[in-house]
């Protein structure tokens, strides 16, 4: 079971996720986003576009490393993986 | 009926109401860009087109007059939706490839309009018209417009012609360089007749509820293409038809103010540059008199700002033959207000407009005099009476 934490900003829109970190069964980041969508309908379109690509200003980290595949989110997850989903830094 | 003004801004939705004085209050979406907010006259539902900085464009609705808002059914391009656009600098092309074929994803929700009962329309970038027939429970891309010959044909099923006559528009604030659909005018006499306007393409009309579309750019001219009378490539900034006389249609265009008295079948340029009436973004048409319209002029496309630091509204009552400058109550020194295309609106004798500098101005006497409702709002994207 992957452990997922989402940014506070997303919890404002999806109070269902307030109690993260959540443990969800997912073997890839794409599967994890779908699992979050099932818990919080609409979530996937906040972090991905219609084609399933990660939005330009969103980041997903697996064990503190940014994911590699922003197009399909195919990065693999293990039982102990810790995932963090957040807005990309908009500097200023 | 008590008038309200719905204001979409860079930092949220505001409602302005009159209790003695006109006063604004934050009504939702704090911190979020609101490109357009309007009330469905059929259902009373408030609709907002949001542009989240990080999370993309979202439709939001309120069924309790703005007390609470929820995410609505979302506007999404269907699988297989593609469009043509010029290559980006540095983007590789094959020999003879003038335009790149790209998958469509939602870049911006730009305009909302209402037709017959249950009908909600949304204009988007890249240039799409989405329609709901079920009070916004679901939205569907209008494919005949998406597949129009002028933009390369059916790109769902075929490779099309490879050539589009719809250009990009850098004018939308986010800088999305793709054609944008910003005006949706439904004929009050017949909701199957709709005019739409697309930045850097032109005006199109359907008379069969969106099953077929035809160009409505006869008489339009431009000053940025080698052929000044090209059928496509026009840059309407906003169009509006008269509610009581829908054959009277007005257009604030990149290249001047244009007027049609035959339902957009032909256009006539009615700019008066000697009075500053030429460049601008919004236009508002009197609800009963089709020959009466209002614009808020700016200097030019190269200088998008108030003329000589003095803000004014110009009104014509004779189909654009003559214009009158309406300045009373508006700042006449060091004013740099820019009025976006959706930020001027009319309701009876009342007019309101908002600017990029966060000023909201309102007139209750057909523009003869103006009051500053507030000067502290975020940059204003849309102003609509409800």
Write the layout of secondary structure elements.
The complex is a heterodimer of chains A (92) and B (386).
Chain A: E1 2-6, H1 8-13, E2 22-24, H2 29-39, H3 43-47, E3 58-62, E4 65-66, E5 82-87
Parallel strand pairs in A: 1-5
Antiparallel strand pairs in A: 1-2, 3-4, 3-5
Chain B: E1 4-9, E2 12-19, E3 21-28, E4 33-39, E5 46-52, E6 56-62, E7 70-71, E8 82-85, E9 100-103, E10 108-114, E11 120-125, E12 128-132, E13 140-141, H1 143-146, E14 180-186, E15 194-199, E16 202-206, E17 214-215, E18 236-241, E19 249-253, E20 256-260, E21 268-269, E22 283-285, E23 293-295, E24 313-316, E25 324-326, E26 344-347, E27 350-354, E28 360-363, E29 371-374, E30 380-385
Antiparallel strand pairs in B: 1-2, 1-30, 2-3, 4-5, 5-6, 6-7, 8-9, 10-11, 11-12, 12-13, 14-15, 15-16, 16-17, 18-19, 19-20, 20-21, 22-23, 23-24, 24-25, 26-27, 27-28, 28-29
Report what the structure shows.
The complex is a heterodimer of chains A (92) and B (386). Chain A has 92 residues and is an alpha+beta fold. Chain A has a single domain (2-87), classed as Beta-grasp domain (Ubiquitin-like (UB roll), Roll), CATH 3.10.20.30. Helix content of chain A is 24%, strand content 23%. The radius of gyration of chain A is 12 Å and the shape is globular. The N and C termini of chain A lie far apart (37 Å). Chain B is mainly β and 386 residues long. In chain B, strand 20 and strand 21 form a beta hairpin. The N and C termini of chain B lie close together (10 Å). In chain B, 52% of the residues are buried. The mean pLDDT of chain B is 95. Chain A binds chain B through residues 9-10, 13, 42, 45-47, 49-51, 53, 55, 57-58, 87-88, 90, and chain B through 52-56, 58, 71, 74, 76-77, 79, 103-106.
């Amino acid at each position: 079971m992957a452990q997922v934490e989402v940014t506070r900003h997303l919890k404002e829109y999806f109070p269902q996720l307030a109690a993260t970190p959540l443990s969800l069964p997912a073997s890839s980041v794409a599967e994890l986003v779908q699992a979050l969508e099932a818990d919080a309908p609409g979530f996937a379109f906040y972090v991905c576009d219609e084609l399933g690509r990660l939005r330009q200003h969103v980041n997903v980290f697996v064990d503190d490393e940014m994911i590699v595949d922003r197009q399909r989110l195919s990065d693999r997850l293990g039982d102990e993986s810790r995932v963090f989903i957040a807005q990309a830094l908009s500097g200023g | 009926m008590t008038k309200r003004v719905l204001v979409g801004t860079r930092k949220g939705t505001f409602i302005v109401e009159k209790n003695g004085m006109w006063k604004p209050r934050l009504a939702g979406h704090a911190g979020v860009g609101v490109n357009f907010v309007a009330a469905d006259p059929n259902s009373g539902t408030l609709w907002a087109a949001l542009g989240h900085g990080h999370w993309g464009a979202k439709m939001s609705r309120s069924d309790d007059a703005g007390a609470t808002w929820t995410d609505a059914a979302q506007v999404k391009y269907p699988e297989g939706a593609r469009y043509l656009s010029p290559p980006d600098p540095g983007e590789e092309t094959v020999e003879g490839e003038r335009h790149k074929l790209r998958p469509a994803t939602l870049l911006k929700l730009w305009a909302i309009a209402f037709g017959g009962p249950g009908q909600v329309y949304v204009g988007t970038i890249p240039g799409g018209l989405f329609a709901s027939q079920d009070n916004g429970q679901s939205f569907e891309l209008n494919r005949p417009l998406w597949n129009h010959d002028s933009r390369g044909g059916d790109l769902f099923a075929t490779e099309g012609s490879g050539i589009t006559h719809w250009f990009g528009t850098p004018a939308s604030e986010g800088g999305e360089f793709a054609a944008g659909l910003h005006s949706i005018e439904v004929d009050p006499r017949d909701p199957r007749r709709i005019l739409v306007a697309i930045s850097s393409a032109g005006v199109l009309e359907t008379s069969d509820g969106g099953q077929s579309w035809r160009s409505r750019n006869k008489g339009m001219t431009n000053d940025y293409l080698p052929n000044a009378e090209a059928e496509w490539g026009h840059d309407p900034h906003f169009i509006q038809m008269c509610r009581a006389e829908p054959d009277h249609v007005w257009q604030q265009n990149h290249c001047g103010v244009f007027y049609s008295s035959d339902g957009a079948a032909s256009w006539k340029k009615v700019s008066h540059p000697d009075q500053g009436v030429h460049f601008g973004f919004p236009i508002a048409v009197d609800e009963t008199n089709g020959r009466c319209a209002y614009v808020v002029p700016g200097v030019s496309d190269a200088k998008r700002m108030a003329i000589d630091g003095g803000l004014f509204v110009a009104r014509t009552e004779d189909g654009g033959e003559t214009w009158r400058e309406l300045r009373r109550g508006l700042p006449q020194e060091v004013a740099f207000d820019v009025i976006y295309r959706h930020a001027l609106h009319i309701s009876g004798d009342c007019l309101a407009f908002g600017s990029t500098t966060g000023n909201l101005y309102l007139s209750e006497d057909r523009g003869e005099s103006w009051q500053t409702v507030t000067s502290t709002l975020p940059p204003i994207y849309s102003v609509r009476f409800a």
